[in-house]
Design brief:
Order of helices and strands: HHHHHH
Number of domains: 1
Strand content: under 5%
Shape: flat
Radius of gyration: 19 Å
Mean pLDDT: 78
Distance between the termini: 54 Å
CATH topology: Glutathione S-transferase Yfyf (Class Pi), Chain A, domain 2
Low-confidence stretches: none
Amino acid sequence: MSTSGIVGEEIAKQAALASVALQDISGAGPNAGHLLPRAVLAMLGPYSAAKFFAERVLQSEAFNVELVQALYSKMLPLERMVDDVLVAARKRGYFDDPDAAEPLRWLETCNEQVKDCMVALESMLDPQLEDVMAAAMGEHQRGETVPLDSIL
């Protein structure tokens, strides 16, 4: 099996594990406050592993469009589920609970890193990005841009 196939399978496996853990979090009901730290930690492992694989694909010198598309399609629902969990946790005040707050902060940090990966993956899949970047660099080299501090 090719490396991209192995990475794709591993992403699918980690995505499934993270999804199950997220369902456990959302289905905890009134006992969620007590179960939340363990469920968040159970979810954080596979979510971090999926992020790790996404980062490796981004750092790779070989570009495989099918792998990048598969990775993006598997990571996007996870990212959205984590966003939903974090929003619900904030609404329910779990970030104020000392037992739940720390794992939630770890999840939040991991989610921000996943969002960065997702933006990079989207950029890799955008065929017009090189043209946009070349045009921006041309403007900069011709002095057609202004420093940000001059705008403020």
